[in-house]
Specification:
Elements lengths: L3 E4 L11 E8 L2 E8 L2 E8 L2 E6 L4 E6 L7 E5 L4 E4 L5 E5 L3 E8 L1 H8 L13 E4 L2 H15 L3 H22 L15 H13 L7 H8 L3 H12 L3 H19 L4 H7 L5 H12 L3 H8 L1
Parallel strand pairs: 1-4
Antiparallel strand pairs: 2-3, 3-10, 4-9, 5-8, 5-10, 6-7, 6-9, 8-11
InterPro entries: AraC_XylS_family_regulators, Homeodomain-like_sf, HTH_AraC, HTH_AraC-typ_CS, Tscrpt_reg_AraC-type_HTH
Protein name: Transcriptional regulator, AraC family
Organism: Tistlia consotensis USBA 355
Length: 293
């Protein structure tokens, strides 16, 4: 029997089949960029459900998936992705060095974020190779930005986009599950007031999607859709706008330094606050304060 190589994206131990060049992990989802050397053929199993998106030059992928007895060759180019269910070994090889963007999801993340959408019966996903899906590509583009944005807002986007990606994958490629119910309406008046008050009271903290959903008494997936229906924007955007509005008030009336204001509103640094403020207003905090005095 061929030796099997385990790839665990939560582990700090180096893998013999890939090298992680950058990684962020939060609440059971791990996003990584990996350099992967040429491989003539290896039995590989992932410890988490994983999506591998190809980001480099075209090559051939040769694989025998867990549910198949046949070895097949797939031409792969940038944008193709593969799905690897947790703990299901596949024999795979590729004809050149490559770079992949990988999203790994723990079972706890999948059950917590989308379990309710399928009435507690999350579909099964078989190993799949060389898929293309414009909706998945758009969501992964957002996750690429989260990989380089280590701000608290980036963490919230990781929660929200990761949940949306999980729902898309399990709804589209899953089997033996229940279809998710349709979402109608927004948060409702009482939930809306509760969420607004919660956000205002925690602007200086890392407000995660899971915390907001728990405050509303909804699953993260249902909450994200209901929030956008109610406010016309995702939670991350709303929270950023509220922080910038509060910053304007403090710049006009508070004697605190710009660094103090940045930290008081949950920004990681003076420069991070300045970058976000400029993107939202077209000017810097210093110029805004100067023009208002």
């Amino acid at each position: 029997m061929a030796e099997t190589t385990l790839v665990d994206f939560t582990s700090e131990i180096a893998s013999p089949v890939l090298s992680v060049t950058r990684r962020i992990a939060r609440n059971g989802i791990v996003v990584s960029r990996c350099d992967i050397p040429v491989n003539p053929g290896t039995q590989i199993v992932t410890a988490q459900f994983a999506l591998f998106m190809h980001e480099s030059e075209p090559l051939d992928l040769i694989c025998r998936l867990p549910e198949s007895r046949r070895t097949e060759k797939y031409p792969v180019a940038a944008g193709h992705f593969h799905l690897s269910p947790a703990d299901r070994a596949a024999h795979v090889g590729w004809t050149a060095d490559k770079q992949s963007f990988v999203i790994a999801m723990e079972n706890s993340f999948i059950e917590r974020t989308i379990g309710n959408a399928f009435d507690g019966r999350v579909p099964e996903i078989r190993g799949r190779a060389a898929l293309r899906d414009p909706a998945v590509e758009e969501l992964i583009a957002c996750l690429r930005r989260s990989l380089i944005d280590d701000s608290r807002c980036g963490g919230l986007c990781l929660d929200l986009v990761g949940t949306s990606l999980a729902l898309r994958l399990f709804e589209t490629y899953g089997e033996n599950g229940r279809p998710p119910p349709s979402i109608r309406g927004g948060l409702g008046a009482s939930r809306r007031r509760r969420i607004v008050d919660f956000i205002e009271a925690h602007l200086d903290e890392d407000i995660g999607l899971a915390a907001l959903a728990a405050e509303a008494g909804l699953s993260p997936h249902h909450f994200g859709k209901a929030f956008k229906t109610t406010f016309g924007k995702p939670p991350c955007r709303y929270i950023t706008e509220r922080r910038i509005q509060k910053a304007k008030e403090m710049l006009m009336s508070d004697g605190a330094s710009i660094t103090e204001i940045a930290l008081a509103l949950g920004f990681s640094s003076h420069s991070h606050f300045t970058d976000v403020f400029r993107k939202m207003t077209g000017t810097t905090p210093s110029l805004f304060r100067r023009n208002c005095t």
